[in-house]
Prior knowledge:
Layout: H1 3-12, H2 14-43
Helix pairs in contact: 1-2
Amino acid sequence: xKRKDILAVYHKGPQAMVQLVESxxxxxxxxxxxxxxxxxxxxxxxxxxxxxxxxxxxxKPKPKSLRPKTxxxxxxxxxxxxxxxxxxxxPDHIVIHSVTDCSSCGSSFAHVPVLRHEKRQVFxxxxxxxxxxxxxxxxxxxxx
Length: 144
C-alpha cells in the first residue's frame, strides 16, 4: 500500500482508518501463522517425526565419534620417539630453483648477490609397475 492510498483512507474518516488497521492486523496474524507452520515444518526430521531419513535435507546431524574420550591432547604424546626420513648425502636428482625477477615490481635479480638459500629433500616412491612372468612347464612323455 502506498502513502497516497493511506492518506486517502485517512481523509475518509476514523471508521475507514479502523477498518484498514483491522484488515492489516488480520493479514499479519495470517502471515505469522504461516511463518510458525513453516518453522515447525523445518524443525522436523527423521529423528523427531514420522518422516523418512531421505527427507532430511540441509540439517543433517553431525556424525559423532565412536571413540571414547581420553585426557590426552591430540597429536604426538610426550616421550613418544618419532620416526622421520633422514637427509641423504647423494640424492638421485638435484633441482635448482632460482628467483630471477621481483614478484612485486618485476625488476631483475641478475646482479643481486644471493643472501641465503633453502634446501629440502623430497622423497618420492617410484611408479608401481606390473611385473609379468611367463611360466613354461615342460612335460615329458614318460609316465610312471
